[in-house]
Each structure stands twice: as structure tokens, then as C-alpha cells.
Amino acid sequence: MHLTVIGLNHRTAPIEVREKVSLSKEAIKQKLCELDCDEAVLLSTCNRTELYAFCDVERLKKIFFDCAEECLYTFHGAECIRHLFEVASSLDSLVIGEGQILSQVKEAYAIAKDVGATGTVLNTLFNRAIAVGKKVRTETRIAYNSVSVSYAAVELASKKLGGLAGRSALIFGAGKMAELTAQYLLARGMKKIFVTNHHLARAEELAAKIGGEAIAWNETERHADEIDVIVTSTGAPHYVIKEKTARRMMSLRNWRRVFIIDIAVPRDVDPEVARLDGVTLYNIDDLEAVVDEHIKQRREEAESARKIIDEATAELVERFKYLPFRPLMATLSERAEEMRQRELRRAMSKLAGMTVEDQRVIDNMTKMIVRKLLRLPMMNLNLSAGTPDEKFYAAAIKGLFDLDDGGLQHYGQN
Asked: What number is the average pLDDT over the span 190-212?
């Protein structure tokens, strides 16, 4: 059994593949509950879908990634640990240094933990990954002047339109990414921002924050002639701008040029919309060129981050070497303690007139005897971790102390 990650990301799979395996929070919960797996965490963002598991994962490829096997990567053991640390530290992001991924890692872990899908191995791994992600952001300047997806979208729009001052935009969605996009648009001199969302109250809340105007979902076409830029960032599982919708909007604009940026995964805008006269459509993969212009500034910081990750990976690999033996050592310790306490009670019942201090001395003495008797077997068990002798020592401890069959009844009960 191995600690393994299977997944795909923006480097290995285009958006049309990534959106097929993108999962909502509810879908993640359902998948985790259906898995026949010792431990599992599912991480699904706009740029990646990854399954971290402590089990035999080969059969899981078909369950999650049947439509995308040619795009998959798989890492085991230390490489799996390193990969998650790089993800949590934003070194593996489309935008190096972006802050959203650490929150997404936390959320993925919280969901898995809530449904009971994690145990000792993944609890240890993800808690350490979150700590490493925080340390990288604190001890390096990797996030300094970092470019978010929202920022890159606004940069692209500004570049293609020759500036945004005095223009108007329509944002589909009212989440964090939509809010960041609105803030960047305003900073570039955007005159007016309309916000729409399936839940009008959320659109009104965001509009109030940015000094924009909320409009109902079914009234967006009425404002078609006022808009220069459309940004979509919803969590919808289907297209929110279909070809026929865009065609009506363009007709109302007399086919005057409009710039559309779709930063959602799954995509919000039907790719067929790009064929319409006057429409320039970009999706999240098209932002990579904008990001590349800023990446040189953070390469040195990325190297500093990798040193932190290297140290943390080595530490956790060493720690995991002993994990398989912890249940065995705990069982042995519990067995010995139960025997000690039983024999201590027998002795105390036969020794009349003992003071409290006398009882304390005898209790401590028996504890030390047990501890010293077990010290050498446990040391040798630990030292064998990760060596060819590992299975031999584990089997020897189980056999000598009868730990496989709950054999407490064999010890001193007569």
C-alpha cells in the first residue's frame, strides 16, 4: 500500500479535459463516501483535480479519470509529499505565488475529514502541507507582486482594448474571484460594473461593495449595448452564455465588438460564441502568456521556497517510516500495561498496612520494569523501519507477544 496522488493540472490537460473531471463540493463528498479506500482527499480547482490516497489506487484511475488517462501524473511516497507541498505553496500553480490555492487545500482536507475519509497518514500529510504553505508565504517573498488569475484577466482585457478607462463591464458570478476581478477593473479606470448572479442578493452584495449595479440574471441582455467587457466566474456545471444568447446580445449591440474572458472551470461560455462576429473570447488557459511576463520576478523566491519544501519533505518521510509500527507498538504497550495493573492489584490485595507512599513506590517500580523490558524490542522495531528486516521484526513482535488474536487471556489469568 502506498501514499499516492493521481491527477491532472493546467500543464498536463487543456481546459476541455479539466472541466470533465472538475468536481463541486457536494460531488467531492459523494465520491469520498463511495470510495473503497483506507484514506482519501480530493482536491478540485479550476487548474487541477487530484486524488490523494493511502490505498491501492490503480483501480481508482478508472473511477475518476477514465476520460483523461493520457493527461495523468502519478506520484508515490516522497514524491507525493513533495508534490502536495509544492501545490500548497503555490509553486505548482498557473500563477506562482497566488494565495487562493492554500485555502483550497485546506477546504479539500476539511471536506475529507468531515466525511471520515482521512486517517493518521493523510491527517499528518495535510496538516504538514498547510503549515509548509504558510511558512513559504511568511519566509519568502513569493507572493510579493504576485499575479492572480483575476489580475491576469484584467491585464489581458486592458492590453487587447488599449486601456479600460471609461469602459463598462458585466461580471457573471459573485464569489471571491469575481470580487477580485471587479477591484482590478476599477483600479484600471473602469467606469461602470454590472454584476449578475443566479442569486440576486449575492449580486447586490458585491455591487454594493464595489459601487456597481446588480442586475437580475434574466435581464442581462437589456444591458448588452452598454458593455465593453464580460467576465464570467461562476460555479455553474453548464454554459451560462450559450451561442444563441450571445447572438441575441450581439444583435442588440449591432455587432459592435465585445471582449469576453471566461475564467471558470467548467467553462461558463460556449466555445461556439467565439465564432460570432465582433466577439473576442478567451478562457483561463489563454491567461498563461500574461502570467509568463511576471514569472521572472518570483523565480529566486521559488528557489528559496523549494529549500523549505525539501527540508519538510525529508522530515515527513522520516516520520512516516515509523507510522506502520505505531499501532503495533501501541497494542504492545497497552497489553503490557493491562498485565501490569492486574498483577499490581493482586499484589496490593495481599500486602496489608501499606501506606499511600509505599503504594506509589511499588506502582512506579512496576512501570519502570515494564518500560525497560519493552525498550529494546521497540528500539529494534523502529530501527528496522524502511529496511529489509522490517517485516521480520513486525512478525516477531506479533508472534512472541500474541498480538494478532487478542491473546490477553493467555497471560497470567490463571
From this structure: 95
